[in-house]
Amino acid sequence: MDNLNPQGDIPGTGACLQAPVPNRDLGHYCLACASQGHTCCQGHDIYVTRGDCERIDRYSRVVDFFEYRGCSHADYADQDDDPVWRQYVFRRDGSRRVLKRLADGNCLFLDFAGCCLPLTARPLVCRLYPHLYSANGIAGVWDGECPAAKTQAGAMLEKGIAGVQWQEAVQWHRMLYTEILWEANTNENRFDL
Known about the structure:
By secondary structure, this protein is an alpha+beta fold. Helices cover 31% and strands 11% of the residues. The chain contains seven helices and six strands. A two-stranded antiparallel sheet has the order 1-2. It has a two-stranded antiparallel sheet with strand order 3-4. Strands 5-6 form a two-stranded antiparallel ribbon. The protein is globular. The two termini are 19 Å apart.
């Protein structure tokens, strides 16, 4: 943790590295949202797979960056359109593994310029956002709650948000559900997560 400021680069922020991180936000939409203080990383639970935890750990070396928590928003608990998510992401008590948030509701890895994790270390759900998806595939529409989706045309978003190309989104979607199902078939208590 020598190059890590556990309180973040800016007072009130999380566990961001001091060195700049490549952020493929080609349209600068995530940066624009972050600079306005309104992003998808604020006040939302960000589910992380075991694979996400390993990638974040390798990159950040932050200790204790996730927790098990129930849904902050009741409508999120309704996952009838995605039985795989409902069955395997949620534990028996209704909680699931999510990134910790700061007292102000911001994600631990959010700083003034957006996510301070490089794309390869970000949780898969963050990489996929604002795509809507289920175990059946990507819906081909944007989440209307995405601040950038409210102001930008879909074609601009496709080129801009984190530089995500359709093929990458499809690959990350496959990776997300592969990790969810792999984790469901292992005994989580055997691992120190």
